[in-house]
Specification:
Layout (H helix, E strand, L loop, with lengths): L8 H23 L3 H31 L4 H15 L1
């Protein structure tokens, strides 16, 4: 299953935001920031990454429904989904 770059633009943007959040977490740790602030920022990054993964899987499921062999594709999508769960 190939992902089209145009379709993935929102996912790419979400991952770039998560990357910025992770950089902020690293900087906060290096500067000795408050634990709560660090964990809050880390939680936001984690949620952004999870949502990006689910968006990718949703796109894959949509492609699976249009596939010539939806049974084989469905099994692959199930494995991908479970890897994020």
């Amino acid at each position: 299953m190939e992902l089209e770059a145009d379709t993935m633009k929102p996912v790419i943007n979400r991952l770039k935001r998560a990357q910025g959040q992770l950089n902020a977490v690293i900087r906060m740790l290096e500067e000795g920031s408050d634990c709560r602030a660090v964990v809050t920022q880390l939680s936001a990054a984690s949620k952004a990454i999870d949502r990006a993964g689910f968006a990718i899987i949703a796109t894959g499921l949509e492609q699976c429904l249009k596939s010539e062999d939806p049974i084989a594709d469905r099994a692959d999508m199930e494995k991908l989904f479970l890897s994020l769960a």
